[in-house]
Amino acid sequence: MLITDYATIGLSLKAHPVSFIRDQLDMLRILSTKATNNDAVNGQSVKVAGLVLVRQRPGTAGGVCFITIEDETGFTNLVVFEKLFETYRREILHSRLLMVEGKLQREGKVVHVIVKKCFDLTKMLGKLVQQPQEDLPVLTLSRADEKSAPYPTQNKRTQVREDVAKETFHNGRNFK
Which segments constitute the OB domain (predicted)? Predict the structure, then answer.
């Protein structure tokens, strides 16, 4: 039902998508945004993950990219410097579920993570998509969602499920 909600209206009244994979993130020692913002100390190395909401790269920021991610507990602001942006361009621009490692920086009530490494965890969202069934709404899966060329390295059902997840969980708003 969560996937159907996101596919049709872009949100859900049920739990946040990241809450369904929180156990897996905990095993990877990835903090929630609430723990990052409230409990981590200035200068601490942290790992945090969330759905990408906004990517901004203002012309006046000297190549710095600002990203806001969201999980089931809140928001975290990320700062990616130009050299690192070039290194992780693909992950930053294409991830729907982004995980970063970096140093927490706290200035009064303002908290952000200075990013050192980026990882695209979008495939984890594919696990939220159920196997295609005949009674699912057309918006979640149709014959047009399948590619005409065979999938070279993956099971076709797995790939279709991941493709549906990518279409359902929209990209964050990006700079142009």
Answer: 46-119
